[in-house]
Amino acid sequence: MLRTLLLLSVVTLISGCASPAPAGPTLAPAASPSVPAVATPLPRPDIVRIEMYEWSINVDPPELPAGRYRVEVVNYGERLHSVSVVGPGVDLESRRLRAGGVQEIEIEIGAGEYTLWCPIGDHRDYGMVTYLTVPALASAEQG
Ligand SMILES: [Cu+2]
């Protein structure tokens, strides 16, 4: 439970400053922008949760190892919301969920960054957008 709270806090902090990174000198190598590499796999959760509120979206956990996941999409808000998930190899949208609505979906994700937002009305502009990071494995086994 504590871990969940910590993750939610992190997500909240990230969502709070969702503006794009300032444009500055580009020093990083061009390959694989913004996807970190990790030496050991992240813990693999049994289920991933996407939680929608007015006006934010949380994805818990916000970082995952690559794999196939059951994803529970929950509308904790009062209005109609849905979630679009777009990233490497993924382009899907949940049903439109009423207040308290839940939909379980399956997503297969690989290394990269995924964007999650509510495609209804101007909800994304109101803050219903967040990101999910799937780090590449630095010592990935090939073949
Ligand atoms: Cu919405």
Q: Given the helix and strand composition, which structural class is it? A: mainly beta
User: What gap, in angstroms, lies between the N and C termini?
Assistant: 37 Å
Radius of gyration, in Å, reads: 16 Å
- The succession of helices and strands, N to C, reads HEEEEEEEEEE
Give the tally of β-strands: 10
Descriptive account of the structure:
The protein has one domain: Immunoglobulin-like (Sandwich). Helices cover 10% and strands 37% of the residues. It contains one helix and ten strands. The strands form three sheets. It has a four-stranded mixed sheet. The protein has a four-stranded antiparallel sheet with strand order 6-5-8-9. A hairpin with a 2-residue loop joins strand 5 and strand 6. The chain is elongated and about 40 Å long. The relative contact order is 0.23. The N terminus is likely disordered. The site of copper (II) ion has 5 residues, from loops.
Give the SSE map.
Blueprint: H1 2-16, E1 37-38, E2 47-53, E3 56-60, E4 67-75, E5 84-87, E6 90-93, E7 102-109, E8 112-117, E9 129-134, E10 136-137
Parallel strand pairs: 1-10, 2-4
Antiparallel strand pairs: 2-3, 4-7, 5-6, 5-8, 8-9
The structure holds copper (II) ion.
The site of copper (II) ion (CU) has 5 residues, from loops.
What's this entry about, in short?
With 143 residues, the chain is mainly β. The protein is built from 1 helix and 10 strands; from the N terminus they run H-E-E-E-E-E-E-E-E-E-E.
